[in-house]
Amino acid sequence: MASPDLTQELTCPICLEIFTHPVSLECGHHFCSSCICQSWQKVPGDVSCPQCRQVFTQRNVRPARTLSSIVEKFTVLKVKVTQPQEEFYCQEHEEKLKLFCEVEQRAICVDCWSSEHQTHKDLHIKEAVHIYKNKLETSLETLQKQMDLSLHSKRERENGIFHMKAGVDRLRNEINSEFEKMHKFLFEKEELMKAELERKSNKIFEEMENILTKTMEEISSLEAAIRDLKSRLEVQLAPEFLKDIQELLMRSQMEFHKPGTVSTQLPVAIAGEPVKYIKVWREMRAVISPAPASLTLDPETANNRLIISQDLTSVRDGNEEQDLPDHPGRFDKYVYVLSSQSFTSGRHYWEVGLGNKPYWVVGVCRESVNRKGEITRSPENGFWVIAWLSGGKSLKIPDVISQRKVKPRKLGIYLDYEGGQVSFYDAEDMSHLYTFTDTFIEKLYPIFNPCNNNSGDNPEPLTLLSGKSSGRRFRRSEF
Fold first, then answer.
1. Confidence at residue 269, expressed as pLDDT on a 0 to 100 scale
2. Cα Rg of the chain (Å, integer)
């Protein structure tokens, strides 16, 4: 008999019958062609999947050929298995059908066998039923397995689509959030700068207007004096001409008080405003997440061959071992050192200066990694690192640097703890180098290995670049 589960999987969710000419929607669900057409027939504009309610702007359906083939085979098998035997007697001899001829693939009676089938391979009809029933059951079982595989694959694809959409939605929301913060920050800075410009310029305009007003007043006084003098000069009679002459002369002794030179250039206080854009750009880094972190090295974890700078931001191989305390956290065989900072959540970014070093190892590691004796640098052992090494492949370290035409001089490392990612970038142009994907369940530390300088060709240090000076496009997160 047909499996109830298989029958259910091959049933149209609309008509609740076995699929007829099944079609697939963009969301991955299946329906009879006529059922989905009737369902959408009276719906104007956008339509949706009757099962998951996903909305479609286009009414695109695709024939589900694989499913149609499975339905066809399933239907045939179901009919053969369940169909009752209609003919129990031979129509020619009216004898009971007791045999099955494998040559002609039909049931026969004893008379048929005697007259025509003695040379054929014949079976007792019950034996034939048993044999062919087993064959059908085997075929059905095979088809059931194929159907299970198909349905499993279908569910995987649907889950993949669901998770991809969820990831896209999460990233879209993150982009919206980050840009909203930047837009808000820039808008507020813009308004402050324009308000400051108005305040400073208005003060200067007020001073210039006052000078202009005084000048206009002096011009008015000069014009009045000139009019009086011209008028007196036109008088012909001597007594009238000389009337109050001394007072007139006193009033005509006016002197224009020329104001200081007025510059037509904007004062430095205003013209220098564009320089503030640099300050705004620097301040904006505090809005973006994550900002480049300022890391320092932890001397208590450093191999005793390593030389660490006084400011704890650079490390190199000293070529010989130093007499240092055997701290439990110190790497004793390989020249590794950890940062003083660790991470248990959030997103973080930091940069490492590589210079022209021919050998180095950089990345993150679990707090519980083995620090004594032999180390296998792989994610399985708690190391998510990349390197520039000869023979790096044998160390299970991704060989991503040798594939590049130009070797990076500055490395950017991005850690998304909850997202389970450690990504590496050429920090000069932020081109992607490699990404590890894993699940983090314990404290993680940035880890650095400047490699030994036994041959004298690797003297340069690894340098931790300050977040304040690196100028990368991320926001500071808490450690």
1. 53
2. 45
